[in-house]
Each structure stands twice: as C-alpha cells, then as structure tokens.
Amino acid sequence: CVMDRTPCTLNAEQLAALRALGRHVVAQLELRWRTGEATRLLTVAEKSRRALLSVLEDEKRAGLDLRESEERFRQLAENINEVFWMTDPAKNAMLYISPAYEAIWGRSCQSLYQTPRTWLEAIHPDDRQRVLAAATDKQARGDYDEIYRIVRPDGALRWIRDRAYPIKNEAGNVIRIVGTAMDITGQREIEAQLMRMERMESVGRMAGGIAHDLNNILAPILMGAPILRMGLPPAQMEKTLVTIETSARRGADLVKQLLMFGRGIEGRRMAVRLKDLVQEMQGIIRETFTKNIAITTGIPGDIWPLTGDATQL
Fold first, then answer.
1. Sheet containing 94-97: which strands, arranged edge to edge?
2. Do 100 and 83 touch, CB atoms closer than 8 A?
3. How confident is the model at residue 6, as a pLDDT?
4. Which residue from 23, 24, 17 is spatially nearest to 48, judged by alpha carbons?
5. Is the pTM value of this prediction over 0.90?
6. C-alpha angle 54/59/61, rounded to 5°?
C-alpha cells in the first residue's frame, strides 16, 4: 500500500516501482526459503522505493511552485482596478471574476458565478445586442474590443471598455476566453467636455453660413405674407401657405439642430444616408467659407447607410 497526504496521478515510472514492490511481496510469500532471490528482490524493491520517493518529492516541489504561481496571480488580479474575467467558450460558465467587478458593476462576484447571464443583463439596452453579437463572433477570434454602458443596481451608468482573448490547446481549439474590463466613465466625461468646447467653436465658425441659410428660409415667409393680403384665389393662396409653412418648419429644424449640436444633446439614433447628409452640409459650408475656397465632394454611389444621430454627425 502506498499512501500520500494529497491526491496524485501515478505515472509509468511510479507504476513500475509499485509493480516491483508487488513482485517482491509475492516472491517473499512463495520463495521465502530462497535467500538469494529474496536479497535480489529486496535490492530491486529498495531501488524502486527510492525512485518512487524521488518522483513524489518532485511532484511536491511542482505543487508548491504551482501554488506560489496561483498566489501571485491572485494578488495581481485582486489588486488592480480592472476586472479580470475568464469564461468557457460557450459563455455558459464564469470560471473567474476579480473583486473589481463588485466595485464597478455594483454586484457581487458570487451572483455572477451563479448566474453568468447577469453580465449581459447589466448592459444598457441600447448597447446590449451589439455587445452580445461581438462577444459571440469576436472573442474566439481575438479581436473583441468593445465600449458599452452598464446600469448599476442604483441606476447609475458606467462606461466600460471590454477586451477579450482566446486560450487554445495544443490542437488549436479554444478552451477558455479571458478578458479585462475597465471603467472609463471619467475618461468619457472629459471627452464629452472637450466635444462641447469643440461644438461651440464649430457653431461660431458656422454662424455666417447658418445666418445665410436662415435668410433664405425667411425670404419666402417675408414675401408670402404680403401676397396673402392681396386676396389671392384659393389655389394660389394654398400654394403660398404651403411655401410659408415649409420654410418655417425648415427654420425651426435648423434652430433645433443648432441648439442640439451646441449643447451636445443626444438625439435619436436612426438610419442615415451619409450622401444626403454630406450634400446638405456642403451647402452650409459653401456659405461659411470665403468664395475663393472651392468645396468639392467625392461620394461613392454604393456607400452604405449607417445608424446614428444625424445632428451629431
């Protein structure tokens, strides 16, 4: 019988040593009267015993090294501000999550171990589908790098930058997904402040072109009002009213867009035809810059639409 204080797996050398010991016992039972054979078997058994002890000692040292390595990893993972996480490729099990998760997400690590799906549920609804698609397609490829918002249990929003990398076995199969998630809320707030400053600077530059555009919008209104006083036929009066109404709506939209742009108000995300947007801005830009500057555009005919806020773009 060979016993150890910790579970271990016997390799070929250890098994050979145990077989040698077993042969020694059998030989002693069956051939105990043959002193010479017994002496030889004892010698073999002693050598096997020493070899077995040597292997076990090596495994003990390897186990100590592994535990020290795991301790260093734990100290690193638990004392950085970023969240370190590890999952299986199918995202069905959370294998490890560092304590920074509790500080950033406002949820316990234990709850994530029990229900890995809560990671996705914490993502802002507007970002959730995009992040899920990226996690499904990109994490195993190694090009997953997403920025999204999460909603803490207290309702507070946090901006997260999440990156992931695949761990493969010798056959090239992905066996683990590891990643880091960092709270970039402060960075986003600074960026937002800089963007507001740039917007106001842009509004100042565009003032001349916008003023010209407003004059063009107001002209049909100013000309249409006196015409209505002349008592026009119903058909012509209706046409004039439509022109005035259209111009007034254009003016209101322009002022609204200008205010939204200057204040940095997030508008509604929708499908935008970039070609139409560029052509619309081209008219304002032409009126903004001096006449000796030529404005030209080159827009591909098959350019794809995009999803975004037309005012922000």
1. 94-97, 83-87, 174-183, 157-168, 144-151
2. yes
3. 79
4. 17
5. no
6. 95
